[in-house]
Amino acid sequence: MAKKSIISIISLLIIGFGLIITVPISVLSVRLSSYNIINKHLFYEYTPDTPSSFEILNLNINIGDIEIKYIDPPVDYFVRIDVNIEMAGPGLAGKSYSNYFNIIEGDLTSSPIDFSMRFFSNITESEADSLIKDVSIMVTLRKDIIFDISANVFDGNVELEVPFYVYINNMNVNITNGDIFFDLSNCIVEGNITGVTNNGKIVLKSYNAEYTQNSEWTLSANQNYIEITQYKPIGANVTGTIRNTVNVGTHLIYNDYNSEVGAKFTLYDYLYGGIHNGTYENFVYYLEPAGENRWTFRSDDFFTANNSYFLRLYLDGILNYNLFSA
Hints:
Elements: H1 2-34, E1 36-46, E2 55-63, E3 65-71, E4 79-89, E5 101-104, E6 113-119, H2 125-131, E7 132-142, E8 147-155, E9 158-162, E10 167-177, E11 180-185, E12 188-189, E13 193-199, E14 201-207, E15 210-211, E16 215-221, E17 223-230, E18 238-244, E19 250-256, E20 261-268, E21 274-281, E22 283-287, E23 294-299, E24 309-316, E25 318-325
Parallel strand pairs: 2-6, 2-8, 3-7, 3-9, 8-10, 9-11, 10-12, 10-13, 11-14, 12-15, 13-16, 14-17, 16-18, 17-19
Antiparallel strand pairs: 1-4, 4-7, 5-6, 18-25, 19-24, 20-23, 20-25, 21-24, 22-23
């Protein structure tokens, strides 16, 4: 009986070791057999049959970094959207990007121009995160067309550069998770600028931008980096609100050297409040009203400025911004 017991124990040990070795190998084999890599490039070109005074472009994106740039004519299209998708992982064998992304390009020949790229409702966020390696979207606009741009993004960054002497109407970017980059260099703005990100930062650089009518800036982010340089008349008044949603501050740099431009910045202490590492030349700095936790910086003589006005501040709170034209 003892021999039989020993034989039984040895048999069980052999079976156990066999399972220890074969089960992981089987699982690994199944995972490898279902593993796949997807690299897909898609593009869409929009050319409205009946052009408008300005074209409306609406982007509705679930995930992806968006870069919006301009191109010189002649090109046949008004807007071209290039999408690059990279996916890899188990469970992708026999599948394509279209099993995960619901892409709606809209009507390629009419206005407004609508492009949507969302996950199907049966795709969970954790599943998407495990499979998606990169999604990038390049939007190319024709320089001789005026656009009204709206972008709604759940997860991704948006970069919008408006170059020399290009006209743009409204710019509205709303992001849940990601950063916003606005670069306005010697361009002409005919509308308002709005940038909101719930979890991210905003970087806005404005260099000698001109405005055809009064404009409003509305910026809200965890952190803001604002740089304004103006050496020529702006053509209208610009007002707005810059809000940082957590206590990490707004970095503001302002510089002008023009007798037809004046500026006023007022910091409201609704949330945190504070001025740190501030340097300013030819600006008046005072509490407004006296005794309350609110600060204002303004140029000494607004519309008759003969000096160079320079401001560099690190701020906490809500900043109201006014840039005046004589």
